Amino acid sequence: MEGVPLDFRPNLWVVLKDFIQRAINGELHLPPWWLRDIGGAEDFEAVGQEFLTLFVQLAQLKPDEQVLEIGCGSGRMALPLTTFLRPPGSYTGTDIVAPFIAWCQKHISRRRPQFAFLHADLYNQRYNPQGRWLASEYTFPFPDERFDFVFLTSVFTHLLPKDTEHYLHEIRRLLRPNGRCLATFFLLNETQARLAAEGKNEIAFRYGSDPIRIRSETVPESAVAYDEAYLLDLLSQCGLTLQAPIYYGSWSGRADGLSYQDILLFRRADNDADGADGVNETNV
Fold this sequence. Notes:
By secondary structure, the protein is of the alpha/beta class. It has one domain (43-274): Vaccinia Virus protein VP39 (Rossmann fold, 3-Layer(aba) Sandwich). It is built from 7 helices and 10 strands. The protein is globular and about 50 Å long. The chain starts with 11 loop residues before the first helix and ends in a 16-residue tail after the last strand.
């Protein structure tokens, strides 16, 4: 397991038990336990199916579209998409953790040639401390207007403002004129602050200053929350516009959270001229 972050290294008994259980249940198509995303190995399949449903319902994803996932991990979202996308539809996934990409290339791309995976060797204090490039300077190696749908789950929740701004500019470049992007965040707003005062936030963002708060001073990228008004203004500055109301998550203690993190669906701002129904009002 050389090169695997320490958070992903269980003891030998855990590895063996997981292998036996997956073999009995016929789940050998899943990545091994230590390569499943930090969000929870036991929820790996359930979260993937949840977001496939959200992609279709919220973003109107179609089977023949060109899809990019930034931060694909070990295939949590890619695996359910293999049963949905069909040629000429395709999927490209990128991640900063090399073992994730190696597993996906070996076990998904070999069976689904229209599914490609690329290692982006970017520095991250927690996940890739030996990374060669900075996220704020990285150009994704794809031509302009390459994708119909771009999504990022639990990526902006680990990026600082300079990196987030650059990623948003890159997403704007990569989206086709009618393209959409779905991304998750931890958002700071009046309702979240009230729930925090009541002790209902599941993550305590105690450090940092406007426009972000962070969970850990020693590892800032561990979890990052953004001021909602700042983020909406940043979208506009990057040539993007909110396509629907914000779908708030349950992490803040909301009883009506759609998912765990807050979900934003946005698109290129130049689509406004086409009469698309952009919504910039939120319910905080």
